[in-house]
Amino acid sequence: MSNKISHSGVIQSIKDGCIKVQIVQTSACAACKVASSCNAAESKVKIVDVLRNDTKGFEVGQQVVVWASKDVANQALLLGFGVPFLLLVCVLMIALKLTDSEGVSALAAIASLVPYYVALWLMRDRIQQRISFNLED
User: Fold this and answer.
1) How far is the C-alpha of 9 from the C-alpha of 21, rounded, in Å?
2) How many Å apart are CA 131 and CA 124, to the nearest integer?
3) What is the pLDDT of residues 29-50, one digit of tens each?
4) Listing from the earlier edge strand, what are the strands of the sheet with 18-26?
5) Are strands 18-26 and 134-135 parallel, antiparallel or unpaired?
6) CA 107 to chain centre
7) pLDDT tens digits, 63-120
8) Backbone dihedral region for residue 57 (phi beyond 0: left; psi -120 to 50: alpha; all else: beta)
9) For residue 117, which of 19, 56, 57, 137 sits 20 to 30 Å off, Cα-Cα?
10) What is the C-alpha to C-alpha distance for residues 108 and 98, in angstroms, rounded to an integer?
11) Contact 25, 7 (CB under 8 A)
């Protein structure tokens, strides 16, 4: 079993060591013959940044394969969804114990996410070095 997740895409731009690659992310049923008449089938166009010191040999419009290890994907999911969910639930439970007000507790739990996402934004450069995409050679 492969330890990486890959998508094929097209290079949109190359600038200052950053290659922007457009990938089309499709759901599992998007290739189905009746997908056009079913609401479950969907696809999304996404642009991913691939940071490379050497961009020689790549050109705009070139077909490439973008990949990331499953460990990187798991870290991204943890930072984007796991930690905020745990923070939300913990603050909600603590606020319920302290205030006995569901409304105030819900607002406190939601408000607790603001500093978390601000901290993520402030550390985006450090996170980008650890969580990044690669191109297959």
Assistant:
1) 6
2) 10
3) 655 666 556 655 567 888 888 8
4) 43-51, 18-26, 4-15, 63-69, 134-135
5) unpaired
6) 26
7) 999 888 888 889 999 999 999 999 999 999 999 999 999 999 999 999 999 999 999 9
8) left
9) 19
10) 11
11) yes
Burial (CB count within 10 angstroms: exposed 0-12, middle 13-18, buried 19+), residue 133: buried
pTM: 0.67
Q: What is the residue whose two structure tokens read 């008449």?
A: 37
Contacts of 70 by beta carbon, 8 Å cutoff, 6+ apart: 3, 4, 5
With beta carbons less than 8 A apart as the criterion, state whether 70 and 131 touch: no
* C-alpha to C-alpha distances, 70 to 4, 6, 22, 31, 111, nearest whole angstrom: 5, 10, 20, 24, 31
